[in-house]
Write a structure and sequence with these properties.
lyase (chains A, B, C, D); Chorismate synthase (chains A, B, C, D); alpha+beta; 5-stranded antiparallel β-sheet; homotetramer; Chorismate_synth_AroC_sf (chains A, B, C, D); aromatic amino acid biosynthesis (chains A, B, C, D)
Chain lengths: 354, 354, 354, 354
Amino acid sequence: MAGNSFGKLFKLTTFGESHGQAIGGIIDGCPAGIKLDLEKIQTELNRRKPGQSAIVTQRKEPDTVEFYSGTFEGETTGTPIGFVIKNANQKSKDYSHIKDTYRPSHADYTYDEKYGVRDYRGGGRSSARETACRVVAGAVAKQFLKDIQFNAYTASVGKIELDKNIKELDFSLIETNAVRCPDPASAEKMEDYIKQIRKEGDTVGGTVQCVIRNMPKGLGEPVFDKLHAELGKAMLSINAVKGFEYGSGFEGTKMKGSEHNDLFNEDGSTKTNLSGGIQGGISNGMDIYFNVAFKPVATIMQKQETINKQGENVEMQGKGRHDPCVVPRAVPIVEAMAALVIADYLLQNKSSKI
Amino acid sequence: MAGNSFGKLFKLTTFGESHGQAIGGIIDGCPAGIKLDLEKIQTELNRRKPGQSAIVTQRKEPDTVEFYSGTFEGETTGTPIGFVIKNANQKSKDYSHIKDTYRPSHADYTYDEKYGVRDYRGGGRSSARETACRVVAGAVAKQFLKDIQFNAYTASVGKIELDKNIKELDFSLIETNAVRCPDPASAEKMEDYIKQIRKEGDTVGGTVQCVIRNMPKGLGEPVFDKLHAELGKAMLSINAVKGFEYGSGFEGTKMKGSEHNDLFNEDGSTKTNLSGGIQGGISNGMDIYFNVAFKPVATIMQKQETINKQGENVEMQGKGRHDPCVVPRAVPIVEAMAALVIADYLLQNKSSKI
Amino acid sequence: MAGNSFGKLFKLTTFGESHGQAIGGIIDGCPAGIKLDLEKIQTELNRRKPGQSAIVTQRKEPDTVEFYSGTFEGETTGTPIGFVIKNANQKSKDYSHIKDTYRPSHADYTYDEKYGVRDYRGGGRSSARETACRVVAGAVAKQFLKDIQFNAYTASVGKIELDKNIKELDFSLIETNAVRCPDPASAEKMEDYIKQIRKEGDTVGGTVQCVIRNMPKGLGEPVFDKLHAELGKAMLSINAVKGFEYGSGFEGTKMKGSEHNDLFNEDGSTKTNLSGGIQGGISNGMDIYFNVAFKPVATIMQKQETINKQGENVEMQGKGRHDPCVVPRAVPIVEAMAALVIADYLLQNKSSKI
Amino acid sequence: MAGNSFGKLFKLTTFGESHGQAIGGIIDGCPAGIKLDLEKIQTELNRRKPGQSAIVTQRKEPDTVEFYSGTFEGETTGTPIGFVIKNANQKSKDYSHIKDTYRPSHADYTYDEKYGVRDYRGGGRSSARETACRVVAGAVAKQFLKDIQFNAYTASVGKIELDKNIKELDFSLIETNAVRCPDPASAEKMEDYIKQIRKEGDTVGGTVQCVIRNMPKGLGEPVFDKLHAELGKAMLSINAVKGFEYGSGFEGTKMKGSEHNDLFNEDGSTKTNLSGGIQGGISNGMDIYFNVAFKPVATIMQKQETINKQGENVEMQGKGRHDPCVVPRAVPIVEAMAALVIADYLLQNKSSKI
């Protein structure tokens, strides 16, 4: 139960600390017969990579994924896909200052409480570096789900919001700017704001929105494993996430039933989609959309009071190269987790009727 | 994987349609040696019961739980606890009008897509009646967790919000009003609003907030099974839920790191608690708090256009006795699911170190 | 993990002590659209029932199964099937003599060591009464697997063996005698021997053989979840089982590869079947066959030395009505567990290729 | 469900084909705070290695394990332990003759039926090479379980049996001969026989016996997850295994209850141990012992008739370097799987009472 696996039939298990020798994972349950384009997987991984633009951490990590098993002559064989991403820079020189110190709003204190021991270098297992493995597995899932489209993008940075309806958005613009916002005007404001925040030695939060198109009907399990419940868990398991809402979300709580109900067209589609593509926990074929809230990164380049292992007050200041805002690099992670969820439910659904 | 189980070590599996003979469940993994007060469990169940006040559905369902196993001489034995709640009123006369009709924003259409067949009486398995079993299991979990306090309450109904800080609230007032809001002034406004909505034949959404006190440190598993990820899944699995946020939540995305970080006191507690009692997915001993968004009930007493199985346009109108707002009866369900999550992680945590 | 569930996609969870109010279970994951013949299920249950013949326990237990959910108009709906078997005779008068006494080779001592508390009446949860629930679920699985035939029968009682090759057996004779042996001559000897053993106040062991015909190819998962590994676990989980072998089994260890290999026919079938229908953990379409070893029942009607909770030597003697040989009633349990395993793997296999 | 994971709380997931780039695994759930001696792990792996003696395959595989995560300063941290064993010789030249040919009693045919595609080089995923990962994980488990002793050894080769009672055996002699039998006289006979069989271009089966000493009481879960049921599954999941029995096993079926019952000593230990250390599925603190049946290796150096993918009759003959008897190298695998089972149940048992 140690919590390093995700999914039931399409299952990812990951390992690795940020400053160990390598991180990696095993994808178990990927069906046989899928042609895998390995370059596409590396491309997805590059979207998450440090150093890719001026508004993310400037750490140098090549993040090259090596596949060790599970494919033969370019095709999946149904056996587990093992992969490894070597850690380029394992020297721990930058982390001696946090060896005995608990960084505020990090996982240092809680890991020590839970395990009694901790790899303090770069956050160890609690580092967001682990999410690189999710992106690899998500990229494999996407190739399995080839007709289903996953479009995540930055919907807000701090108080700057993408103020457009989903229908107005052109998803082909997402990768045209460093902040990954499909609205160029908003993107520019967000980017400027992130740069300003970084100058202050501070950080800021934001939200990612994700739209899943071409969804098959009938995915999701009733009661505890509702499709949106698992999507919610998937998103909340990403570092720094504080909230999840789908369809009408928190705004929907203010509406009346007569306003909120999605009336049917004759073909079973609905005139509105406040349900967010899921009814009773099961996909209805309409677009799924949801929002994910990311808090501001806890590591700031300003002095902060904190305590050490001995419970003494000490002062600390972030060192090294950190993201002023996690949201642009979180976009591919959100997509990856969404793809893992949908892949798993697609396989699960094969046993729902004879 | 059919999704009718929740939890790994403290596990609930439920069965039952709203208009079958009975609903029930099995609690597996409850440790031996817990004195069980069965009346307290029934009391919890009564908090969820239809007909308990003027602002909830007036259906008559006694909802009496019978325990069949797992205890001996008043104590749990470590063996599975089987229980059953008989369905009082199994006659289906009220449901003939929906036999072939898909109610808007219900699970009728998606169940048919998934299974090809469906018990259409009262929503069948998709009925919120299933949550009665969760309340039973949650009440058992609470007795196992006796020092940990679960306080859920209505935080908003439509646009009427409980406008007080958690610290100002007196949780002993929650059960003093039908709407289950610890602030009597807000409660009155909410109650009036629900009555008005009901007169309109309409429904309205709302939010439940939950505060967990006396939390042990170290609960939660890193990476995929973070404590808040599982809490989120638990809440999102409740009927009508559209969103979940904990700690600073969606509001926290607008903050800077320098504002958001929770600085430590010397004893490891924190001066602020925007983390919501969870850091890196693991409890830090501070209060856990979170919000759950409920959409307006889909069944309204107004005429609506819809379609039938044949894809023809038909008109329908809700019959029978339904909740104008699900939130007051959802309060004990939120508490129950929270207790199930914490019980499970308490057991899981026993294997984190030697 | 409390071990009261079996299966992953076609999953049974059971509850109930022998002297509680009821035993029962939940079958989760049975696909929608299966016509269920409830009488056939009761018939299977009757094959396991006490009092059915002169050579089994003479206890009176009606063992009537009641279904509470999961079917609608005679068909499964894909939702969980909840069922209950009431315990007819819950009076505990016969068990006061074992309240503080540990019966030799029973589970009394180990349950106390594990849980610190125990329902001592009739073995509580460790009673073979629990297997009634397995027979119910297995009977449902059989109806799902309608073309696959499960034939279990008594292959030995003590040293009396059914000395015929599987191919010579006429399975239609299994139910023609009380001992459930398809060879009438052997059956008579076995029955006489069991009667003699009972007169001595003693018990005896035996073996059950099971043959599965019309197996689909490709069932079983590689590596840890090989088809025979799960069949083995299923059988070893039945009360009193001490061993499992399939295909050539323990005898096969004495053979050479040149004798043991099953050569192919052109259609993929094999000329011999020492593999027992499974190669590399995956079914090859040939008949699956295996043997299950049952030890002699531990409760004997003779005086035995033992100890009590206080570690004092005491003398005890079995009371009541017990089976002199468990094998005849174990036959339907073996079939049921085999059916549960095959049903689960049939569903799992749906996700092995695109 | 793809079957490449074993264990629930102490969980191993493996990947890798025999002729891919590497095999490896992830151990998830190993508690924090265990000092790991990595050399000891390599030593265990060397016991399984090809080429170690004259009676095993002469393939050259260095089998060096590299650890990538999960330890810090020599101690486990509670995070997943990722490891990799590179495949030294990935060239596939030796396997072209089996590309389209189904080897008798191998997994070639069934893998093709299941997946529709297969890495035919050296058996791919069905190769016993995968068990190297089990030995690594088992060696970690042994260090966690340091007081519990696992002693497996060869108990028979073909018809040559180790004809001594467990109590007479000196386990320190196991590693003094190539066949791994603690009785030197039997070992010599076995070794001679294996050499003779190899000369014939044939193979032979055998059995491994395992004794677990210093067992804690109370391990094992009632009903489906009985300790011996999981041990049985673990053993049956090893390549070439056809049977499992524990305690009195198949011989016990011939006994009477009055002979078979284990009477108690005052301290709760038993005078005899036909129960094999497990009663009602739960350990009672006595030694656990069991037998595992291995069939003769299917690859023989003699000509055999077989078929190819097109269903045509073809003739084939094993090439390369194969084991004439799998048993000597299976000994450490049996120990490893036993250690994984016990580690898992030790963790599970922590939640059995308050």
